[in-house]
Amino acid sequence: MTFSRIPVEAHESWVGHLKRVVGEEEPMSSYSTGNTRRSKGEEQNRQEHYHDRINRYLKSHHSHHHVDEPTELAALEQHAQEVYLEREQTMQAQHDKKSKKHAKKHEKKLRAIYQDPGIHKSTAHGIMVDAGSTGTRLSVYEFEPRVLHNEREVEEAVSGRKLSYPGTESRWTDRLRPGLATFATIEDETELEDAIREYFSGLMEFALSVLHSKESDLASYPIYIRATGGMRTLTRSDRARVINSVRTVFSNETFCPFQFEDEYARVISGEEEAIFGWAGVNFVLGTLIEDSEGAGTVLNPEQTYGALDLGGASTQISFFEPTQDIMSNLFKLQIGQGKHWNLYAHSFLHYGMNAAKDRLNALLINGKSTQERLVDGVHNPCLPGGATLDVHTEIHFTPLGMETWNATVPADVESGSYGNAVLKNEGAVGNFEECARLATSLLHKEQNSWCDFSHRDDCSFAGVYQPELPARSQEVGEFLAFSNFYHVWDFLELPPRSSMADLKNAAEIACALGRDEVRAFAGDRVEEELVDHMCFHASYAWSMLTAGYGFKDTDYVTATNIVKGKKVGWHLGAMMYEINTLPWTYASDGAHISHAHSRDHAIGGPNTIYFSAILAAIGAIVSIFAVRSRRQRSLY
Length: 636
Prior knowledge:
Blueprint: H1 8-22, H2 40-65, H3 70-115, E1 124-131, E2 136-143, E3 147-148, H4 151-159, E4 173-176, H5 189-210, E5 223-227, H6 229-232, H7 236-250, E6 265-267, H8 270-284, H9 289-292, E7 304-310, E8 314-320, E9 330-334, E10 340-349, H10 353-365, H11 370-376, E11 378-379, E12 388-392, E13 396-397, E14 403-404, H12 410-415, E15 420-424, H13 432-441, H14 449-454, E16 476-483, H15 484-492, E17 497-499, H16 500-511, H17 515-522, H18 534-548, E18 556-559, E19 562-563, E20 566-567, H19 570-579, E21 585-586, H20 616-626
Parallel strand pairs: 1-5, 3-21, 5-6, 7-16, 11-15, 16-18
Antiparallel strand pairs: 1-2, 2-4, 7-8, 8-10, 9-10, 12-15, 13-14, 17-18, 19-20
Helix pairs in contact: 1-3, 3-5, 4-20, 5-7, 8-19, 13-18, 15-18, 16-18
């Protein structure tokens, strides 16, 4: 977005005049701490008082002194932009302050996990780093060593009947904020690498605390850094800069003593995220293991479950279609040498919860004048009654009503519109019907025309083909939803297994609340800064599931974040896939196997042999399997 600046003197004169008339300094942000300690409630009241006085002044000034003159309106735009930047700085300062508090808790956690990590002495390990749009999470996994001891195990491995399964515990996971994509703003290469090194240092310290008793084997444990929707929203050049810096940092063996190759750090596609989510769900539920063993294609599995993931930047859907009638978005998943699964999988970028809120803000202020955006305020029916929200967006709209990053409307280009606005709900409560209508419009079902024609109405939203959701049967169970779907269920206090009608009824109740009421209802289940957004969250989740994916009122979905003690998400499915691409080692019964590998996968230990002459007939086959390149990363 291009900013057109006004003369500094004019800006200072205008802002100074506002200060004198209003009688106080401009607030730093909704969450400003400043030099005076105030509670969040006090600060919110202070900002509301400020906005009320400045709005009354501006309206009066407009009627008597022509506030809509270009210079004064430009000054108001500039002032709003500066308040936005100050708010960003204040929020960053608050984040830094929280980080210091978190560091103390983190040290305590490190001491506890160091003293009792709970890992098994005989297991091998892998590390998965989930670099999401709002934060990064590191999880340590353990699995049985990839060692074959006899002819029977060799035959099982070759035939696809022997697979490796990852295990983990919640205490083996650590996380931090913000998301990796935020580092794209650092242009200097050295500064970028330094920032990324500092960013990941705490997570690396955590991983080493979990695995410190196996220091001699660390180089044999692979670490994968997989970035998702937040990084996919960046430009190609920014994406490459950040990932290349990550690779440089992790290639340093002093920083990262684990097994690492450049390909281990990358941005995964949305379809990979979707398919790994499905694999993780069905692995935890026990429906993936037996049906994956063997060769060929899975045709008549035990009951499988669909997966629904609603992240910050993107959303994913994936499921097994029992008739195998998938005309597009078919993804073949193979775990190790096991059977292929033919699955439907699709990811929608910019349809995650945070991205959708940003697009909603842009939609609400699209075409609004400076007076309407910054003085009068723009109505948002998704806010609780009495709420006011300062927003900033970089999104514009084309004349056809589609989102774009470029200002295409001549008035916006000339004025250098900043995309700042005040959203508010002056009513007593929010409005679910209006909010759901806006949420549904964000799905862009108007783009389905060609899809409806070419695929005979088998479409979801945004012009994307999707086969009809499979009916519950012996082969297909219900869908399991996680991430932000779970957070919506939790806020609404819905049972994990709820129908779409249940979701709608709960959302209607939650939206019909004033600002104080929704805070009392949310309690400690929702972070303070998200409470005012929960009506939209609930409305968007319902709209996506029903108007988007096609669930009926009587259809049930189970929303959860923990299944059988394991965190649900794509990272578990990804680890399962990755460890089954690792090479096998053969050792006769009783031989000692050292797990210490160098970074090129060499196996240590004098008694270690790859294939003995006694098993020569099988050895030729196994050797071909064992040396399969680690760089064959396709899931096909």
